[in-house]
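Thought: the user wants the 3D structure for the chain below. I'll pass the sequence to the structure tool as-is, report back what it returns, then summarize two notable features.
Action: structure_tool
Action Input:
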Amino acid sequence: MSRRIEKEFTYPIWDKWRENSFTEGRTGKHTYMGPEFLTFEVCHDKNSDDYGKECGWCMWEKRDLERPAGQDITRITVDCKENPLLCEIANDEGREDLNLMRRGREWKVLWDAPDGYQDVEYTDEVEPRDVYDEQNITYDFDKKEFVIGIHDWEATGVKKDLTWAEVRDVRDAALHETDAKVGMDDAPAELIDGWKGYRQQLRDLPSAMQAKGYEPWQVVQMFPVMPKDMRDPPESSDPNDPHRDGAFAVDVAVAAQKAAGKK
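Observation:
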């Protein structure tokens, strides 16, 4: 088993939240706490779509390192004293101090939504996992170095080429899925009124957002909040937490397919 180390490091931070731009020279400091060495399994099959991609979890336990690797896999061991940023992004052991930090961060308004819709928020209390994408670690066999993807808007699933037609498809799908809510005979009037208000906000969404100058890819992150009878209780202050009060997550592609009758 690799011994554990602590290594403070400085890392580049994007110019703006979720934007893949690093021209302003902004940096942050963080301390890696974990195994001294991590071993990555990387696909070396040039005919595979996974060529150069990390396959599976990084390893440090003896029992894992003794396990045979696949024929299309190359194992590459990294010294975390020399590359703490890579090790921090690749190895998430669920540190409680980081979990507490994430739950307690202050979030500010990035895009101010009209009344009844959700603001999009950001935080100044940035950590490496905000900036770098743990799901997009690749290895350049020619340069013999790892490349860590940026956790920008596209990496979160946002399509910047989204159209207003697709936004309306998502809106229409949400309306369709709540048709039955306004016809519940045994529901309290307050609840019915809540669903009626929610549905009206869905109908008004394109015009309300266009009046504020937002683009379609921004708008899909600012849908109105569902009435409480379909919400799980809030769990944190993090707007990326799907159970946070006011959070709304929607798969744009699937919703658009549903609205078009293709799924």
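Final Answer: Structure generated. Residues 242-250, 259-263 have pLDDT under 50 and may be disordered. Strands lie at 4-12, 27-35, 37-43, 73-79, 108-111, 120-122, 132-140, 145-150.
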